[in-house]
Write a structure and sequence with these properties.
Length: 896
Amino acid sequence: MTDDVLPRPPVHALLADGTTVRIRPVVTADRAQLEGLYQEMSPENLRLRFFAASRRAADQAAERACATGCRGHRALLAERAQQVLGLAEYHTGEDASSADVSIAVAEGLHHHGVGTLLVEHLVSAARTDGITTFTADALSENHKVMRLFADLGLDVTRRLDGPEVHCSIALDTGDAYLTAVEERGRAADVASLRPLLRPEAVAVIGAGRTPGSVGRALLHHLHTGGFTGRLFAVNPKCTSLLGIPSYPSVALLPKVPDLAVVAAPAPAVPGIAEECGKAGVRALVVVSAGLDTATARALVTACRAHGMRLVGPNCLGIANTEPGLALDATFAATHPRPGTAGVAVQSGGVGIALLDGLSRLGIGVSSFVSLGDKYDVSGNDLLQWWESDDRTDLALLHLESFGNPRAFSRTARRVTRRIPVLTVDAGRTDAGRRAAASHTAAAATGTMTRQALFTQAGITATHSIGELLETAALLHSQPLPAGTRVAVVTNAGGAGVLAADACAEAGLVLPQPTPDLVDDLLTVLPQGASVGNPVDATAAVTESELRACVDRLVAHQGVDAVLVALVPTAVAVATGDDLVRALTAGPGRRARPVAVVRLEQEVPVTLLPAADGTVPSYAEPRAVARALAHAARRAAWLARPADAPADLDDIDGARAHEVVEEFLAAHPEGGWLDPRTCAGLLSCYGIPQLSWAWAETEDEAVLAAERLRGADGRVVLKAHWPGLVHKSEQRAVHLDLRGDAQVRAAYRDLETRFAGLLTGVVVQPLAPRGTELFAGVVQDEVFGPLVLFGLGGTATEVLADHAARLAPLTGHDVHDLITGPRCAPLLFGAHGGGPVDLDGLEQLLHRLSRMAADLPQLAEADFNPVLATPERVTVLDARLRLLPRRSQDPYLRRLR
């Protein structure tokens, strides 16, 4: 911990009841307010805090809290409307790794989560300062503080000493703690969204008499949609609009609305927000577009100051079709159909397309939020709402940007185990990312990073609105397949071939039927049928025969899904058989997914009413194949047990931070580490490196070569100077050097060619033969560290055979990294070479991940090549680049 305590910037966060507070460091000028905090406490609460009802102790505590800049001391307060609601602080003693913590909550505000929220922020600050343990002494009857400590999710040890209890709290913010923080955050988030999505009264601000205006359309939709609460218009020029009472200002409304929908010109929006906040409005939906930077900042400031949640600006609006509410505050062409899909989009156009598509399919919408520029309410908020609303069984997202991807990922991993979460992977190209950045408040990011997020979180990522709806139709109507084995049945051979090709291209498998299944199917199919895969039932198949065939395929253990490709024939017309009815009529929903392709179908996808639910019908074989592949991937993700990062007990994190701080102190702007510093940092994480030595003269290089020569006597010389990146391209490496003369000649060559640049050489023994791999890290400004793995050597950038996952890596993530690249078969012994040291490879990736997660200053890490042999995995060449970045806790509860 440094002598100068860095101040933490103020943030806003939610209490348990969903109200907003501001958390910031205490400053000297806060003393009077802190004295007031203690003066207003009852004698009993003073006694519990100070072990005696002492006003003098309270004054001393206020003075001590305001002693800013002291080594080993931090104090944070929570405030609302410039009133202090609580205080939490810690002081270290001789042991800088342990600190005494104290909490004070304003009279009458216990059980609102003030103290818990402050302690969470204090824990985050303490860990940044190198503190590993909090201690606290409390009276044994102080049940409030005991409950606070017990519910944190941290390991608490208590020791009774007379009337006092000594508590020791280990600041191990592992999965148990993060889960507890998540649960508190979810409850607070849902509470904060109730005024937005379940308002009892709504005011539309900006509605006028002009037909076709956005404000008037919003008011019309709320009125005609059947909103069951009270509805007002705010317009100083009229007393009634569309039969709705209108008032000159929010302050003059007969009832304070929970929600205000704003469709006013951009310059007026901050003033309207301030007026709404002063009146007690709890949530805003701002559909207005064109806010400049200053106007946007003023809007957010007003919402934060008055504790209002904000949707938008630049959005389509919101809707909640919940029975007894019927809230439609959008200006879409039609009202959304009530249903079970939750929808959150950043693009209004995408929102309209999804609303129309879900209504047409009959799935409908539970709640809809057009996030627009997403200054506050985000996809993460909506996931938590849908998780709790008891209505939503399908979540559809269109997100062009991410504010806190790691928090989003953690929420999505939990939610998607309960309901499918689907998204459109928008901004996959440079042009798409530029378009997204042009109309969203947060930065867009690269394809590989975003895809890693979706994969790790279990999110089903599609490439278009059409594919999203096609997949939603299948997931909504059918059970998940247990695997990728698909049986294709058709009444026309050509349609079956198209379906088979589509399945293979989507990564699905068409297994050949077993002899017993062939015999079984031939007993129910017409003469001339061909039982392979596809099963060609011929144009002569009847409705009952097709139903029997599908039922037998669904019941077979070697089949995970059945795709039926049908074309209309004169035979069916003549016999009166309805082949589609063979799939929809029956005793009930089938145990495995069944989908139909009808090439003559006019719409891309529809849901056919069935005896117990619906059956999805597609116009294109590729559409149903994509949907089945997505469903199979979801089933495989759900089948994996929950996992966590590896527990590595031989990490010297304290020394690693010292190495980083020392380097950045000498290089304030950051840069590439020299070989010795690089090796020192890798050793802190137990990352295996090939033996090496540093030499700055020809003689030193010879001596180093003599020490390092292996059994064959060969060594390698690698030039080094600050900023050297691609040694091979610069011809800055000499391989296969034998004897002193060759070492001297190689050194002189490097010294001559790179005169004025060369600072020394790295001497290594020539590595044995093996598979050359690449492992690395790129620190994304928004997403955090991305770990890459794949084929290494000089061709790594040309072939780009890499997989990527976001750190910290779990065991599943490491497995996916190793098996993802095209070179993976080489690692498992393809071509008779025998498998490489897979345990060692897994350890390397876990340790690289841990280093990246521990050190936000690590901008880049490049291990190339990593030599993998059956005996070991070794880093032959490593480059690390540091930048002066401040650590930010991605899981700390705070608003955007």
